[in-house]
Design goal:
The chain is an alpha/beta fold and 364 residues long. The chain is built from 16 helices and 11 strands. Helix 1 crosses helix 4 and helix 15 runs antiparallel to helix 16.
Length: 364
């Protein structure tokens, strides 16, 4: 997979600490003076235990040692200042060391592979064809235009509950072999879950988007924000309000996402490759700025025929017996036309129950 820079920071070799650098400078000075045949100084008591190469014929004075120490400190101070990480604690710097060589990007090798992935995604959930079609066209475009990796436009799947919108998003991640994180917007402080919180808050932490990239070293993971229109606001002790829509705006806009500043680390990251899938039951509750960056994809209601076909495919992939699959489909047919009709979620539970029964021990 191709690799790109991900963090706006400079990293230096962690083994080059003050002691290592001083030793290197002393050895270098000694070799220079050996080559010139300069007068030797006895520093065995001053320097303490040193490598044999330094103690055998030291050519470094006490004043030289002091100068080397001062210059080493200035060098390390300048490295800290230029790294962009000097304000962080040691443990946070250590975490970000994982990004020193950049991150990898999921990439579609050719248009034929894009067609295969789109067909696989569509076959499992054909009622979500409008979303699959956008992904298919974006995959083909990424190949055709020679992009470094796969970049999808942010998707907002809008439709009735139970269509399997977040299930489809997880399948997208599985098809792409991309790390996938699902964030429930109905939870508390969803804004902080997505982007993180500033230091000074009692529970300050990085957001789950950045955590996913840190853990996987992948720059375009799939991030699913489920039921985005139901997210509440988070309010600080000083009365400052934070909402999810405002937090998402700079991440959904490629120009600002390339230099996104993390509230927790206070360092800039390239988040422009993130694959966003938002879901909603009523997009009209979302603000216009978010909708302009993420136009809603209207999805039709799921039918009993869709659910039956899904159950047959999913049951086969779970290695259920034909009898168990037929029983599940019969239940769908029996209850699928009621006013409280089955949803994809309830069909998935039926399949889970069938798998559990299939693996129960038989009593004699």
């Amino acid at each position: 997979m191709p690799r790109i820079p991900f963090i706006e920071a400079r990293f230096f070799e962690p083994t080059e600490n003050r002691h290592t650098l001083e030793q290197r400078f002393r050895l270098h000075l000694q070799k220079l003076r050996e080559a010139k045949g300069d007068e030797a100084y006895d520093l065995s008591e001053i320097l303490g235990p040193e490598p044999e190469s330094l103690c055998s014929s030291p050519l470094v004075s006490t004043e030289d040692v002091r100068k080397i120490s001062r210059r080493t400190k200035r060098l390390l101070d300048r490295r800290d200042a230029s790294s962009g990480l000097a304000h962080l604690k040691a443990e946070d710097r250590e975490r970000l060391q994982a990004l020193r060589n950049g991150v990898e990007l999921i990439r579609i090798p050719n248009e034929h592979r894009a067609d295969e992935l789109a067909a696989e995604l569509h076959a499992g959930m054909p009622w979500l064809a409008p979303a699959t079609d956008i992904v298919w066209q974006a995959m083909r475009r990424s190949v055709r235009e020679g992009w470094t990796g796969l970049r999808l436009p942010p998707l907002l799947l809008d439709g009735s509950p139970g269509l399997g919108k977040s299930f489809w998003a997880r399948r997208l991640g599985a098809c792409l072999s991309a790390p996938t994180t699902v964030i429930e917007a109905t939870g508390e402080n969803t804004s902080f879950s997505v982007v993180g919180s500033q230091r000074g808050w009692s529970s300050a932490h990085p957001g789950r988007v950045l955590e996913t990239a840190l853990a996987s070293r992948i720059g375009n993971p799939v991030i699913v924000v489920d039921e985005v229109e139901k997210a509440g606001d988070a309010t600080s002790s000083k009365g400052q309000s934070f909402n999810l829509a405002d937090s998402l705006l700079p991440l959904l806009e490629p120009v600002t996402a390339r230099n996104w500043s993390c509230p927790y680390f206070q360092v800039r990251f390239d988040m422009s490759w993130i694959i966003w899938v938002l879901t909603s039951n009523d997009f009209r509750r979302l603000p216009a700025p978010l909708l302009s960056r993420c136009p809603p994809i209207a999805l039709r209601d799921i039918t009993a025929a869709d659910l039956t076909e899904f159950a047959r495919r999913e049951g086969a992939s779970r290695h259920l017996s034909p009898a168990a699959i037929d029983a599940t489909c019969a239940a769908i047919d029996r209850f699928g036309h009621r006013s409280d009709r089955l949803s994809l979620r309830s069909v998935t539970r039926l399949l889970d129950h069938a798998v559990k029964l299939a693996h129960q021990p038989q009593f004699h």
